Amino acid sequence: MKLPLCGYVVATILIAAGAAQAADGQAVYTQNCSACHNNMKPKIGDKDAWAPLIKQGTDALVASVVKGKGAMPARGGKPNLSDDDIKAATEYLESKAQ
Question: Hey, which bits of 1-98 come out as E strands?
Answer without folding.
Answer: none
